[in-house]
Design a protein that fits this description.
Blueprint: H1 2-19, E1 25-31, H2 34-48, E2 54-61, H3 73-78, E3 83-87, H4 96-117, E4 121-125, H5 129-140, E5 144-148, H6 158-168, E6 171-174, H7 177-185, E7 193-195, H8 200-204, H9 213-220, E8 229-233, H10 241-258, E9 261-265, H11 273-282, E10 291-294, H12 299-307, E11 311-314, H13 317-320, E12 330-333, E13 346-349, H14 355-365, H15 381-390, E14 421-429, E15 433-440, E16 445-452, H16 457-477, E17 480-489, E18 492-494, E19 499-502, E20 513-514, H17 516-523, E21 527-531, H18 532-543, E22 552-557, E23 561-567, E24 570-571, H19 602-606, H20 608-620, H21 639-647, H22 651-675, E25 679-683, H23 687-701, E26 710-713, H24 719-732
Parallel strand pairs: 1-2, 1-4, 2-3, 4-5, 5-6, 6-7, 8-9, 8-11, 9-10, 11-12, 12-13, 14-17, 17-21, 22-25, 25-26
Antiparallel strand pairs: 14-15, 15-16, 18-19, 19-20, 22-23, 23-24
EC number: 2.7.1.60, 3.2.1.183
Family: In the N-terminal section; belongs to the UDP-N-acetylglucosamine 2-epimerase family.
Protein name: Bifunctional UDP-N-acetylglucosamine 2-epimerase/N-acetylmannosamine kinase
Length: 737
């Protein structure tokens, strides 16, 4: 960490010397509407807070200056920014021709402003037609451009505008790994791409705990409760205006029928917005008792409204991006956001052509609570962007360089910009210890924390939260970006809801426990939970012998016996989440009693608990210790003593281990005859002691068609933590809807 900080300071010093010791970077931030200001404002505050490095010029244009859209330039003034220039660039008409004319008008007015300000760099956000005029003007006037949120994919003309600005921009700040890869595929120089996250998330992730009831009452009425209202925000789709107006009409009809208090925001200034406002007025939305129609809500207040809403509906990018930070249900209508990465809180109604479809979606989503998603940011975007700005060398040639294919598969960023590893928080709930670790994408355990597992539910949950918060804070110092939390626990788990249904007797007060909600709410991270046996199988699939194997079984041999089954590359959970309880396969009708209440289970013969039971019996009869062994008076007899005795020639200990190995082998034969895997992986502390016995039983007892199965001992040092991490890493890195 010290090395990294010193290197960063040295780089900034060199850049300052190259640019001239007294030269501050003159940054022009141009904002066109309420939406882009919510992303640019955090950066503007950051620039303003470092006057020793930057000079800030603010240019306001577009719909900010129109009364029908709320005169939103006022919120910039309220944030105490000096507006250096106001440009009226919108040609009214709200049709396709008016959009083109607005771009032309902006191109006419901007050169004079840029000549006067002479910025070193202009920051342009997003994909609006106003932003295209800004980027075109700056590029033609040899002003460096930093483009925010390039590389993303969505519907409508916005895609084309966004990618056009990308080709004009010299530097790129993107929000997701996919966006970064898209920019690289578009031949942009990866040394000039920063994966920072969305700047608005810096404010979002610290907003939810503030006082919110007064805000809700101000906008929706005194009688409204949290999670009992809807926020609606729908814009015209410029490539299919007629259909988008019809869809808006159906949306309003569905909302009227749904009969919940609803805050409706006016659409943006795109072609078709005037017709959408006419639809609102035709249906009497502005005077309907269940509706509040507004032109603009300040971003700080809008955050609180969507964070505590029962649902958000429409086609705004805010719904698929920012709202995921709170786990609020979202209904995304139509094609305007097609291609966006979304969290599981978003329900897509691509073909919203009937009122019933939209009404059904409302019935499915309203009032739910989903895990908080951090796909678009982790709350640390602005420090990264400021660091990136400081690293810009104005002596470098202005002309862009394009990196044409072939592009390397794994492209790392320059350490002077940002060096972060995609990682997971892994939690392992064992019978004795509670462990939390930061695990990288490659399976490296970067940091590990261990505490004794408390005996009560309240103490255990409190300790989990404390350890996770500590680990998440430490992740920033070790340059790890936490994608989510994975939890491995004993017992029967519903992974869809993140609930421990029934626990083993080793973990007390651990039944019907919702782990996902409190941890997700506290950390603003998505949370996954699964049984420890299933997690071991996932660890093998991602990092161990199971990598690339279509069908395999993992057996954990430890205090108990568990496992997981992977079939056609997917984990099997079963209809009631009870699949792969391999320790409770019965191999004898009159065998010893198992902790589950049955008799003759594999676990009753081959688990660490079973071996300890047999070792105690021998010890009580003075038949355990042989020459070369000794025990202290207060020492507790364990399975390890039985194994040691067998190695030293104790025939009774050898017989017990042989019986245990045979029982495990018979269980494996049953598994082979049931699911026919190509690989069996033995994991846990006892695996190496059982592997030969299992192979012998397969050769004696199994059908000839399955005798060729490979039986191996796991080479993973910590399958429980690696499996918990796999829950996160496998899901978050492939999550594109």
């Amino acid at each position: 960490e010290v090395y990294f900080k010193n290197l960063s300071r040295q780089k900034q010093k060199e850049v300052m010397e190259k640019n001239g010791n007294n030269h501050k970077l003159r940054v022009c931030v141009a904002t066109c509407n309420r939406a882009d200001y919510s992303k640019l404002a955090p950066i503007m505050f950051g620039i303003k807070a470092e006057p020793q490095f930057f000079e800030l010029d603010v240019v306001v244009l577009g719909s900010h200056l129109i009364d029908d859209y709320g005169n939103t330039y006022r919120m910039i003034e309220q944030d105490d920014f000096d507006i250096h220039t106001r440009l009226h660039t919108i040609v009214r008409g709200e049709d396709e021709a008016a959009m083109v004319e607005s771009v032309g008008l902006a191109l006419v007015k901007l050169p004079d402003v840029l000549n006067r300000l002479k910025p070193d760099i202009m920051i342009v956000h997003g994909d609006r037609f106003d932003a295209l005029a800004l980027a075109t003007s700056a590029a033609l006037m040899n002003i460096r451009i930093l483009h925010i949120e390039g590389g993303e994919v969505s519907g409508t003309i916005d895609d084309s505008i966004r990618h056009a600005i990308t080709k004009l921009a010299h530097y790129h700040v993107c929000c997701t790994r996919s966006a970064e890869q898209h920019l690289i595929a578009m031949c942009e120089d990866h040394d000039r791409i920063l994966l920072a996250g969305c700047p608005s998330y810096d404010k979002l992730l610290s907003a939810k705990n503030k006082d919110y009831m007064s805000i809700i009452r101000m906008w929706l009425g005194e009688d409204v409760k949290t999670r009992d209202y809807i926020v609606a925000l729908q814009h015209p789709v410029t490539t299919d205006i007629k259909h988008s107006i019809k869809m808006f009409e159906l949306t309003l009809d569905a909302l009227i029928s749904f009969n919940k208090r609803t805050l409706v925001l006016f659409p943006n200034v795109d072609a078709g917005s005037k017709e959408m406002v006419r639809v609102m007025r035709k249906k009497g939305i502005e005077h309907h008792p269940n509706f509040r129609a507004v032109k603009h809500v300040p971003f700080d207040q809008f955050i609180q409204l969507v964070a505590h809403a029962g649902c958000m509906i429409g086609n705004s990018s805010c719904g698929v991006r920012e709202v995921g930070a709170f786990g609020t249900p979202v209904i995304n209508l139509g094609t305007r956001q097609t291609g966006r990465e979304t969290g599981e809180n978003v329900l897509h109604v691509r073909d919203a052509d009937t009122q019933d479809k939209i009404l059904h979606a409302l019935q499915l989503q309203f009032g739910k609570q989903y895990p908080c998603s951090k796909i678009y940011g982790d709350g640390n975007a602005v420090p990264r962007i400021l660091k990136f700005l400081k690293s810009i060398d104005l002596k470098e040639p202005l002309q862009k360089k394009f990196c044409f294919p072939p592009v390397k598969d794994n492209i790392s960023q320059d350490i002077d910009h940002i060096l972060e590893t995609q990682s997971a928080l892994a939690v392992d709930l064992g019978g004795t210890n509670l462990r939390v670790a930061i695990v990288s994408m490659k399976g490296e355990i970067v940091k590990r924390y261990t505490q004794l597992n408390p005996k009560t539910y309240e103490d255990r949950l409190e300790l989990i939260l404390k350890m996770c918060i500590e680990a998440a804070s430490e992740a920033v110092n070790v340059n790890c970006r936490i994608l989510g939390v994975g939890i491995s626990t004993g017992g029967r788990v519903n992974p869809r809801e993140g609930i421990v249904l029934h626990s083993t007797k080793l973990i007390q007060e651990w039944s019907s426990v919702d782990l996902r909600t409190p941890i997700s709410d506290a950390l603003h991270l998505p949370v996954w939970v699964d049984n420890d046996g299933n997690c071991a199988a996932l660890a093998e699939r991602k990092f161990g012998h199971g990598k690339g194997i279509e069908n395999f079984v993992t057996l954990i041999t430890g205090t108990g016996i568990g496992g997981g089954i992977v079939h056609q590359h997917e984990l099997i959970h079963g209809s009631s989440f009870c699949a792969a309880e391999l320790g409770h396969i019965v191999v004898s009708l009159d065998g010893p009693e198992c902790l589950c209440g049955s008799q003759g289970c594999i676990e009753a013969y081959a688990s660490g608990t079973a071996l300890q039971r047999e070792a105690k019996k021998l010890h009580d009869e003075d038949l355990l210790l042989v020459e070369g062994m000794s025990m202290k008076e207060e020492e507790i007899v364990s399975a390890a003593h039985l194994i040691q005795a067998a190695k030293l020639g104790n025939t009774k200990a050898e017989s017990i281990l042989r019986t245990a190995g045979t029982a495990l082998g018979l269980g494996v034969v049953n598994i082979l005859h049931t699911v026919n895997p190509s690989l069996v992986i033995l994991s846990g502390v006892l695996a190496s002691h059982y592997v030969n016995a299992v192979k012998d039983v397969i050769n004696r007892q199994a059908l000839s068609s399955v005798k060729t199965v490979d039986v191996v001992v796991s080479n993973l040092a910590d399958p429980a933590l690696l499996g918990a991490a796999s829950l996160v890493l496998d899901y978050t890195t492939r999550r594109i809807y």
